[in-house]
TrEMBL record:
This is TRPV5 protein. InterPro entries: Ankyrin_rpt-contain_sf, Ion_trans_dom, TRPV, TRPV5, TRPV5/TRPV6. It is a multi-pass membrane protein. The gene is Trpv5. Signal peptide: none annotated. GO terms for biological process: calcium ion import across plasma membrane. Residues 135-394 form the Ion transport domain.
Amino acid sequence: IGNTVLHILVLQPNKTFACHMYSLLLSYDRNKEGPGSLELIPNNEGLTPFKLAGVEGNTVMFQYLMQKRKQNLWSFGPLTTVLYDITEIDSWAEDQSFLELIVSTKKREARHILDLTPVKELVSLKWNMYGRPYFCFLALFYILYMVCFTMCCVYRPLKPRTGNRTSSRDNTVYVQKMLQESYVAYEDELRLVGELITVIGAVVILVLEIPDILRVGAAKYFGQTILGGPFHIIVITYACMILVTMVMRLTSTTGEVVPMSFALVLGWCNVMYFARGFQMLGPFTIMIQKMIFGDLMRFCWLMAVVILGFASAFYIIFQTENPENLGQFYNYPMSLFTTFELFLTIIDGPANYDVDLPFMYSVVYFAFAIIATLLMLNLLIAMMGDTHWRVAHEQDELWRAQVVATTVMLERKLPRCLWPRSGICGREFGLGDRWYLRIEDRVDPNKHKMMRYTEAFKAQDRDNYEKGSEKLETNGDTLCKKDLSALSLSRSTSRTSSHRGWEILRRNT
């Protein structure tokens, strides 16, 4: 019951009352330091009160709990060394990481905790010492891996076509070699080494990604933008396309160009994932994800309806015409593709002035140009501009969340020998097995003195304003003008008192 009450207090809107009641309830806890402490008992979601405060974005309760856990090591003048307990914060030995919970929650207030002590210092220490070097090395290794895969695709085994053409539109010159013919020369053996590296890399990607999907859940793993959800979909699809290509090569099945081309596009698009390691490029990847999976996905439904309607109309119009003179609409699939190009203004309207065009083509093309080019494309630009404006206002906050998510990911993937635990064990200071982060804080006494002066002046101004407001409420409507002048006099008096206070500050400084 006591643990349930602690979780309820974390969710209270009155932060000051919740902190006092939290402290009062813990004062009756018999096992304050033991494993049976109320603060260490998780709820049904596996969250302790401390983790729940972070997930809900309750910065007041989080700071209150951190103040209870900190230990003052020594103090000398304005310098103070503080040990902050990071046992539940550090993701090194936690199955359900506190940092991962913060960046994966949908509440924006939770990301404000990343700017608080000691979370900010812990993330900075992990990122600068281990995260950034490992992430840059991983980016370089992945680019070299993609170069190897691209070269294997460029020099894939082909041979000249021997059969006769079946149509005047058939333009095929080379065909795919059989498996027995693909690995004969010395160049083929070099390509075989690159293909083995590519397949091994695809298997490693699946081995690393599948356990995280099972641990977190597919909806949360692929749906969180900050965690790199769309990029996880891309890299898993890429690995599957590599394996499909391998099976088609081993069985001598024609058509391997389809999964191979998909793999090339997805593999190189995944390079954008590594932009999150740089503050200048990281927020742009989030903008691209939000535009693709937000604005563009909604726009594609409207675009599909327009393209289907006008492509059908164009096909019907040119169905009786000779395709050799106007071949852009010679069959229905080609009509869809041509209309898509017209929609994006990639090509101009097809016309052949040596022959007569149908009259309805001009009418339908005029309506298509008005609806598609002038209306819908400008609508898409306006939607993307609004998304860019919203993301630009929180780009620094999003980049810090990306850094935290990347740090936690690397810490889980890498062996323990390459990523030692951050902080200091409490045994060195007689504080048990808990881990602490040492932070040096400099206290400026003049700053606190000036803050006290400022608060005093604010209180005096507030009192003068409340007196004027009370005087205004007690009088009737007939004395409205007189009361307003009295209120303005009160405000001028307040400004005068504030002016005298700031003059005192200047002389003291």
